[in-house]
Amino acid sequence: MVKTRFAPSPTGYLHLGNARTAIFSYLYARHSGGTFVLRIEDTDRERSTEEYEEGLIEDLRWLGLEWDEFYRQSERLEIYREYGERLVKDGHAYPCFCTPEELEKERQEAARKGIAYRYSGRCRNLLDKEVQENIRRGKPHALRFRVPDGEEIVFEDLIKGHISINVDDFGDFIIVRSDGMPTYNFVVVVDDALMGITHVIRGEDHISNTPKQILIYRALGFEVPRFAHLPVILGPDRSKLSKRHGGVSVKAYREEGILAEALFNYLCLLGWSSPEEDREIYTREELIKLFDLKDVNSSPAVFDRQKLLWMNGLYIREVLSPEEVALRLEPFLREKGIEVGDREYLTKVVTLTRDSFDTLREGAEKLEPFFRDPEISDEIRDLVRTSSDYIREFLDTIEKQKPSTPEEIMKIGKAFLKEKGIKPPLLWKPIRGFLTGSTQGIGIDILLTLIPLEVVKRRFRKALEV
Ligand code: GLU
Q1: Ligand 1: residues within 6 Å at CB?
Q2: Which atom of ligand 1 lies nearest, measured to the CA of 18?
Q3: Going by CA atoms, what residue is nearest to atom 3 of ligand 1?
Q4: Residues of the chain with pLDDT under 50
Q5: Which CATH number do you get for residue 353?
Q6: What domain count does the chain have?
Q7: Residue 435: what pLDDT?
């Protein structure tokens, strides 16, 4: 039975790379009829905050990644303590009394020689007597894992293939800090083993940690799970996607008005090759059915913001219903101080305008004129004044003929222009101007179809006031 987990540290907002890791772990569990675990890795007390944890959970819920089991490492310290003691008792770990200053010296020495730092092993072979004496004197100590010399750790990564790392690349490493807090490489093993995780799916930045973890699995007599390390996501300049590339958190995209469905869909395409080539739009159910780790690429994917925006626009125009888009737009309009009383009206507006925006934020901006009078610049006032007689007459015609679709409005408009012998901009530009505050944007036919005539007239009058 497959069991996967997503194990974020609440030390920042969920960024796109981690969101993709969460999605792949979730999809693989669901695809296999297995279990998906959310585990908050908050043993770094200094950098972890409750706010970030809440943020992570909010983002995961928003993406629709419901989990079957939930754990928080800070609530499991007693368990780690027991396993730490067991490792010491069995000789796989030992207390290290080296002070931070002593270790810093070792580090500087290595840097001076230009070699990779490895712990000297000074406390590795202390006599029992010395250990007891140090403890009696209250000397703070960490616990270090005793790494066997020269061993080659080999594993078959489900994405990266055959990986072989010599343990001499790293020395005896700390599993419990001197303040009693256990470290990532240690607790991740205890948790993955006790929780019965079968597939560890995570970013490739953890490949170098994996041999350390395998050593701990062995030392504790646990079965080693399968590993699947996902390639990094690159920015457009082909360096690892990071803050330097602008907003890269899920929160930033949500606030920009990207739909959860679109982000979910887009992130799946970053690194996963669908067996159905040439297809890009998938529902969650389809992804659950199709997703498999064997189709994850081993080389990095490049994040393409334009493509995400395009896909989001497609979801707005073609995938979601206008009712659904209206619902999602409301909070964005509210943020602008617009309370949509009449949801049916908003839905009508969305139906006719949704091909003109790619994000909900952009949508809220474009839709503002349907809900409140715009600011009118002097330039627009001039345009309106110049054409005011035509406009008045045109509005009267509309009032008489009562068109109810954009097509009918256009027909009446064309006939009017022809009869008067004037060019379209002379009429359309000022009307759009006093309706929206801008001379470009949503089609005039749509504006006149949706904005009630008495509102149109009021805005016209206001534009003529000095
Ligand atoms: N807390 C680790 C991280 O956020 C988890 C790594 C793992 O999945 O093992 O990078």
Answers
A1: 7-9, 41, 188, 202, 206
A2: 4
A3: 8
A4: none
A5: 1.10.8.70
A6: 4
A7: 97
Shared-domain flag, residues 49 and 7: yes
* Domain with 153 in it: 78-176
What's the pLDDT score for residue 245? 85
Ligand 1 closest atom vs CA 41? 1
337-361 pLDDT per residue, tens: 999 989 999 999 999 999 999 999 9
Taking CA atoms only, the protein residue closest to ligand 1 atom 5 is 7
CA of 7 to the centre of ligand 1 (A): 5
SS3 letters across the chain: CCEEEECCCCCCCCEHHHHHHHHHHHHHHHHCCCEEEEEECCCCCCCCCHHHHHHHHHHHHHCCCCCCEEEEHHHCHHHHHHHHHHHHHCCCEEEECCCHHHHHHHHHHHHHHCCCCCCCCCCCCCCHHHHHHHHHCCCCCEEEECCCCCCEEEEEECCCEEEEEEHHHCCCCEEECCCCCECHHHHHHHHHHHCCCCEEEEEHHHHHHHHHHHHHHHHHCCCCCEEEEECCEECCCCCECCHHHCCCEHHHHHHHCCCHHHHHHHHHHCCECCCCCCCCCCCHHHHHHHCCHHHECCCCEECCHHHHHHHHHHHHHHHCCHHHHHHHHHHHHHHCCCCCCCHHHHHHHHHHHHHHCCCHHHHHHHHHHHCCCCCCCHHHHHHHHHCHHHHHHHHHHHHHHCCCCHHHHHHHHHHHHHHHCCCHHHHHHHHHHHHHCCCCCCCHHHHHHHCCHHHHHHHHHHHHCC
CATH of residue 449: 1.10.10.350
Are 68 and 46 found together in one domain? yes
Residue 67 and residue 84 in one domain: no
- Residues belonging to the active site: 243
pLDDT at residue 266, as a whole number: 98
| Rounded distance from Cα 41 to ligand 1 centre (Å) | 7
Whole-number pLDDT of residue 243: 85
- Let me know if residue 335 belongs to a domain: yes
Mutational pocket test of ligand 1: of 60, 186, 206, 226, the residue with most ligand atoms within 8 Å of the beta carbon: 206
Give the nearest ligand 1 atom to 192 CA: 9
Task: Decide which of 336, 370, 404 is a domain's last residue.
Answer: 370
Q: Ligand 1, residue 8: give the atom nearest the CA.
A: 4
- Our mutation pick for probing the ligand 1 site, out of 3, 4, 9, 210, counting the most ligand atoms within 8 A of Cβ, is 9
**Within a domain: residue 186?**
no
Give me the pLDDT at residue 377, please: 96
pLDDT at 328: 97
Indicate if 279 and 242 belong to the same structural domain.
Answer: yes
